[in-house]
Design goal:
Blueprint lengths: L5 H17 L20 H31 L3 H27 L8 H17 L2 H25 L5 H23 L9 H16 L3
Helix pairs in contact: 1-2, 2-3, 2-4, 2-5, 2-7, 3-6, 4-5, 5-6
Bound molecules: fe (ii) ion (FE2) (2 copies).
The site of one fe (ii) ion has 7 residues, from helix 3 and helix 6.
EC number: 1.14.99.60
Function: Catalyzes the hydroxylation of 2-nonaprenyl-3-methyl-6-methoxy-1,4-benzoquinol during ubiquinone biosynthesis.
Keywords: Cell membrane, Iron, Membrane, Metal-binding, Monooxygenase, Oxidoreductase, Ubiquinone biosynthesis
């Protein structure tokens, strides 16, 4: 991988930020909702499904920002490449959630620039602690997201087959991302780091459900 100078790095990160927050990223893999029926939901169900999918979309905006931030300061080129590869796979999730929001007649969170900036800063901080921490942070993030997707699969309206198919595939991907980071030598993060991460994500979820 080419070594970027700091200005190139900053420009590449800015481009990712703008593309994630304001662009319409393309998925590499086909949308797992495929030809599952788009069952008509009643108004309350549709609003609920849209709130959940908005949270998941924000989660993927945050994943992009975290990984790009972490990669910006990763010391080992192998770790950096792994982080950027994970970010690329998260782009599929981002695109699928955006597609489903559109189908549900809903828009992404208005606060996406804020979510992105905050997560990028957290990614930089995690990355500056060194690569063991960097990978440990990936493991903790992915495990928390996996558990959260499990909850959303239970909370989605039963008839929302399309959102369900997307979240099932995402959940399997996140589990694999965590396993992969563990295998690369992740450190176990000490408390209160995981607890603070869970608190921050609960706050994000409460807000993103609505705006
Ligand atoms: Fe994801
Ligand atoms: Fe992931």
């Amino acid at each position: 991988m080419r070594q970027l100078n700091p200005l190139d790095q900053l420009l590449a990160d800015a481009q990712n930020a703008l593309g994630t927050v304001f662009g319409r990223p393309d998925a590499v893999r086909a949308n797992p909702a495929g030809d599952r029926a788009d069952v008509v939901l009643d108004d309350e169900e549709r609003r609920h499904a849209a709130g959940l999918m908005r949270i998941n979309h924000v989660g993927e905006v945050c994943a992009q920002a975290l990984y790009v931030g972490q990669a910006a300061v990763a010391r080992d080129p192998v770790t950096r490449a792994a982080l950027l590869a994970a970010a690329a796979e998260e782009t599929d999730h981002l695109a699928w959630c955006a597609d489903r929001l559109g189908e549900l007649d809903a828009r992404p969170s208005l606060l996406n620039p804020v979510w992105y900036a905050g997560s990028y800063a957290i990614g930089l901080l995690a990355g500056l602690r060194g690569d063991g921490w960097n990978l440990g942070f990936v493991v903790e993030t992915e495990r928390q997201v996996e558990a959260h997707l499990h909850e959303h699969l239970e909370q989605l309206p039963a008839a929302d087959l399309r959102s369900r198919a997307i979240l099932e595939t995402m959940k399997a991907d996140e589990a694999r991302h965590a396993d992969h980071a563990e295998a690369q030598g992740a450190r176990l993060l000490p408390q209160p780091v995981p607890a603070v991460m869970a608190m921050a994500s609960n706050l994000m979820k409460a807000i993103a459900y609505r705006i």
